[in-house]
Predict the structure of SIS domain-containing protein.
Amino acid sequence: MIDVKTNTEMILRELTINLEKVDGAQLDLFVKVVSKAQKIFVAGAGRSGLAIRGFANRMMHLGFDVSVVGDLTTTSAQEGDLLIIGSGSGETQSLVAMAEKAKQHHVILALNTINPDSTIGKLADVKFVLPGASPKVAAEELVGQSVQPMGSSYEQLSFLVYDAMIMSLMELVNETTDTMFPRHANLE
């Protein structure tokens, strides 16, 4: 029999166990880098890309100048701007090429990943590591086990950590839900 509630409970337990393995100092440093950025660009592929787009949305609500790379209205990146990449493997070819180009333009590179020693991980100025099972990352000590398919646990934890970062950023930049809401889309 299909038991969605039990599946949900298993997922929540898994995410709680994975969160215990996360280095809080990495997360706090990441938030400080974001808070000081003049212009922020975000990129990710697949479901990691969906999670980071949600992060971009909330950063916009906070008043940050943020763009999703690849959108038609994305401006050029300049020296000192920040590119945040979400990539479990850190090896997605389009994102590797983007990271290399960012470094050529002296853009600060930040990474959310399972694999800190990946190609993008080696280029990153700042990164945080989230555990999660993924067929794209071979090292068992990095990925662990999962009751879920493919990289779901990493992608879910990414979304939650991004939202937790927004809460910290709210405090750093003195914003509240009330001050953020006027930046919410109103032509929907």
In short: The mean pLDDT is 91. The domain at 18-173 is CATH 3.40.50.10490 (Rossmann fold). The radius of gyration is 17 Å.
